[in-house]
Amino acid sequence: MDFNFKKKLDDELVLKISRMKPVIKPTKPHKHAGYHELIFLSKGSGQHTIGDETFDVVPPTGFYLGPGQVHCWDFSKVPDGFVVLFKEEVLSHYPKALNCLFQFPKHFKIQDEGAFFKILEDFYHAFKNKGDDDLLTAFLNLVVIKSHSLSQKSKPNNPSVTSDFAHFKQLLNEHFMEANHAEEYAKMMNMSLKRLNKVCKMSVNATAREVIKERLLIEAKNLLTHTSSNVTEIAYKLNFTDSSNFVKFFKSLTTLTPLEYRSKAIAR
């Protein structure tokens, strides 16, 4: 399968930092040739596929893409954050940072988001104000080393939380068509709604209701993209009282109507 190449870093540039585009339409799998990419998200929701792995977008979070890495986005909430593009040569005088590039995981949590995103904000303004190369390269060195340190500190939840969340997701995948209230799942799991919400918060930084809405949205997207069912039929399949409620639900999470999403998805 051939993939499109997207060139976001001009030949004369060795590094660039920009804000994440506040758009929600799905992207086709594509490659970025000749440079490394670090993506830091403070807001947003959805999925990011890198190679053959798909990751949930749960801010604050980071992603690393090596040169030529295939990836695509499918956001369900408008993202916010920064994208840092750079050629390997720019770190030639920073051997520690250069070494970090070959140890980055594709996806990592960001623990001290306030301080770290302040660094990114300062880096962005220095770039926009045409700061000199030494200053921008120093910022890049700091961001690479700091984000690598954060990626190494990412720790999984305790086993009971992981097990409870996996159980919730299993039940949700089995019953989301007919059960769309968090209280129903708490009852199935023989736990309080407060406990279920805590499990979800610790696992994906969202309430149980938000996780349920995300699952309904995924199915709605699948039906819009891969079937010819009309909006009323999809609303009925997903247990909405009427199509207008379904349209409001879909637009509140994606900023698009179902038909607008279908049009963009089919045009990919």
UniProtKB/TrEMBL annotation:
What keywords appear on the UniProt entry?
DNA-binding, Transcription, Transcription regulation
- Does the UniProt entry include the keyword Metal-binding? no
**InterPro entries, per database record:** AraC-bd, Homeodomain-like_sf, HTH_AraC, RmlC-like_jellyroll, RmlC_Cupin_sf
Q: Tell me the ranges covered by the HTH araC/xylS-type domain, including all copies.
A: 166-264
- Family annotation (PROSITE patterns): HTH_ARAC_FAMILY_2
What is the name listed in the Swiss-Prot or TrEMBL entry for this protein?
A: Helix-turn-helix domain-containing protein
Q: Which organism is it from?
A: Echinicola arenosa
